Amino acid sequence: MKKIIVRGPALSRSGYGEQTRFALRSLRAHQDRFDIYLFPVGWGQTGWLSDDDEERRWLDSIIQKTVHHQNNGGFYDISLQITIPNEWERLAPVNIGYTAGIETTKVSPEWIQNSMFMDKIVVVSNHSKEVYLKTSYDGVDQASGQELKDVKCETPIEVVNYPVRDIKPEKVDLELDFNFNFITVAQWSPRKNLENTIRWFIQEFIDDEVGLVVKASIKNNSTIDRYQTNSKIKDLVLECSKDKERKCKIYLLHGDMSDGEMVSLYQNSKIKALINLSHGEGYGLPMFEAAHNGLPVVAPNWSGQNDFLYAPKKDKKGKEKMRPLFANVDYVLKQVQPEAVWPGVIQQDSFWCFAHEGNYKKNLRDVYTNYGQYQKQAKDLKKYIIKNFTEEKQYKKFADFICPEEEFEIEDWLNNLDVKEIA
């Protein structure tokens, strides 16, 4: 059994928080291989889990176990670091980095450099892997002064997608005026493109009885954040409807919501489709959750979501091919906006996708007027996801990459050898 220390925002309500919990669930599903320890870190100003359930109690117990272990020497066989790669470091004989945040066309030089500290890297989508492997930089060897050309990541990288989780819906009281509503789920940031998501929605449906539920925050789930988020939405609504009476409605959902409450949103009979108009996703967990609950998705076909929004369909000749089962919004790749640049994370010279306004509006209208077609697509996609993204498959794939079963077979064989003393 390997002692493994997991460092990540396990108690954070964030994408990286869910990623950390997925890693811990994977290791826990294979406890015959792993003796699990946890060092939780914060994640920006996001809120923390308040749930009092079996998993939270287990997380608390392994945190306490880690404190005791640290006070008694604290040796580990493996470190699993679930952060952005410029925070990776060598903490154990074997070090594994696990990251999601690759939403552009290249990673930063720091990520390439820190990948050399890792023995393995896990990412959440094929987009993330491809960008990591394709990025290269020229540099200078600090020890010899020799010029280096096309320095790339040489560390083995594996893709492990998120699984479908069986979560019981918990009722959320929504007072929606209309029977047809879209939903979008995002943290307000340049990458998520919420301004245009909302603005273009209002412009398209200003004369229609259609709603948009916006589950959003700016930094966290505080009262001040709610006020600021609400003010942003009000400003957009006033901008778009100052010269014309508006029929469509925007609803803000703000604050902590459990996994069960989020599932109930996706299964609400009045919520018909999810919109994601972000410039790029490492994976796109809200889209995945909506899709495996049978909700049609409106999004560009670029970045992490392509791993689960496509499914095999047969053509007229009976040949199977992966096809998009969602409302596919046209886009162009352009350089990231200055306000989105994040030194060491989002490169100034990198690109990401910009959805086409007219095609976005066209897709919204088509989903509204031809809903049956998209509902059927969503049902087909749901069946594909439920079959191919099971917890058993994803947990095993993750655990096998961290430490393959074969290593334990060899360990057992060595431990069971009948070693006789030589006279």
List the SSEs and their pairings:
Elements: E1 2-8, H1 15-28, E2 34-40, H2 54-71, E3 78-81, E4 94-99, H3 109-115, E5 120-123, H4 126-134, E6 137-140, E7 147-151, E8 157-159, E9 181-187, H5 194-205, E10 211-217, H6 223-241, E11 249-253, H7 259-266, E12 271-275, H8 285-292, E13 297-300, E14 310-314, E15 320-324, E16 327-329, E17 331-335, E18 351-355, H9 357-369, H10 371-388, H11 391-402, H12 405-415
Parallel strand pairs: 1-2, 1-3, 3-4, 4-5, 5-8, 9-10, 9-12, 10-11, 12-13, 13-16
Antiparallel strand pairs: 6-7, 14-15, 17-18
Helix pairs in contact: 1-11, 5-6, 5-9, 9-10
Descriptive report:
By secondary structure, this protein is of the alpha/beta class. The protein has 2 domains: 180 residues, Rossmann fold, CATH 3.40.50; 208 residues, Rossmann fold, CATH 3.40.50.2000. Helix content is 35%, strand content 22%. The strands form 5 sheets. The protein has a 6-stranded parallel β-sheet. It has a 6-stranded parallel β-sheet with strand order 11-10-9-12-13-16, with helices on both faces.
